[in-house]
Design goal:
two-stranded antiparallel sheet; 10-stranded antiparallel β-barrel
């Protein structure tokens, strides 16, 4: 009887300490939303060495500095220590505004007190491979290598029928290195810390990327968890390629939340 009781206690302890986490499944899907403060600074140069005005699209051109951004991602746990994940998000903003300043955008000049239509679109696709240097029930430390593919497009035109302004767009592929650290306070409750950074000067792009986040996660079941936290994303690029000659600095910071669902078992 004593041996049976000891065996039961050992089994209960092992079960209590087992991690309940959708990312321990073979596949997992994440859906979430951001509510960030957005800051966008752009310069688009014209032909013949014409230098454009450095513009703050929020304060100078009237775009909203707060928005809602939805994101989605999928992950594949290839083996116990090997992960592959893909993330996608898109933020599109537009609006009309009577500007207080005179400025140049590409080959066109805009006078003060002119009503203009402005848009700025950002689309980000990220793929990362990760290797877990530590992977236990209590904690996980993951090193990552991957790439961010960012597409930006901006346009300004006078708010007059038939008056066409200027547009600029560019595709920016940036490799990234990252670290992910998960610490589990209980089998259901954990904290997730992530950092991805990179710097690149290559073929007409001089850019930097910083993506930092911290989240608390609660697992209702081993396959379903919710998370909430804070996310910071910034990309700064001097570009001389495609349809964009100039620079753009785009960043957001603010709270985010979502749900992660796991599928399948790791064998």
């Amino acid at each position: 009887m004593k041996r049976i009781a000891i065996a039961a206690l050992v089994l209960m302890s092992a079960t209590a300490g087992a991690a309940e986490d959708p990312t321990s499944s073979r596949f997992f899907v994440m859906v979430g939303g951001f509510w960030p403060d957005v800051n966008t600074t752009v310069r688009a140069d014209g032909n013949g060495g014409r230098v454009g005005t450095r513009l703050d699209f929020e304060s100078d051109l009237g775009l909203d500095d707060r928005d809602t951004l939805f994101t989605g991602g999928i992950g594949w746990r290839i083996a116990k220590r090997h992960f592959l994940d893909v993330l996608y998000f898109k933020l599109s903003r537009s609006g009309a505004h009577t500007t207080d300043i005179s400025f140049s955008f590409k080959d066109q000049d805009f006078s003060a007190q002119t009503t203009i239509d402005t848009y700025f679109d950002t689309e980000v696709f990220r793929i990362s491979y990760g290797y877990a240097f530590i992977d236990s029930d209590r904690q996980r430390l993951l090193g990552q290598i991957g790439a961010h593919y960012t597409r930006v497009a901006a346009g300004i035109r006078r708010d007059v029928a038939g008056a066409i302004g200027e547009e600029a767009s560019s595709d920016v592929p940036l490799p990234v290195l990252g670290l992910v650290y998960d610490y589990r306070f209980t089998p259901r409750f954990s904290v997730d810390l992530r950092a991805q950074i990179f710097r690149l000067n290559y073929e007409g792009i001089d850019g930097s990327l910083d993506n930092l986040s911290a989240s608390l996660q609660y697992a209702f079941t081993p396959k379903v968890a919710v998370f909430a936290g804070y996310n910071y994303y910034s990309i700064n690029v001097d570009a001389d390629r495609d349809h964009w000659h100039g620079s753009f600095d785009f960043g957001y910071k603010g709270p985010w939340a979502g749900v992660t669902v796991g599928f399948g078992e790791l064998r």
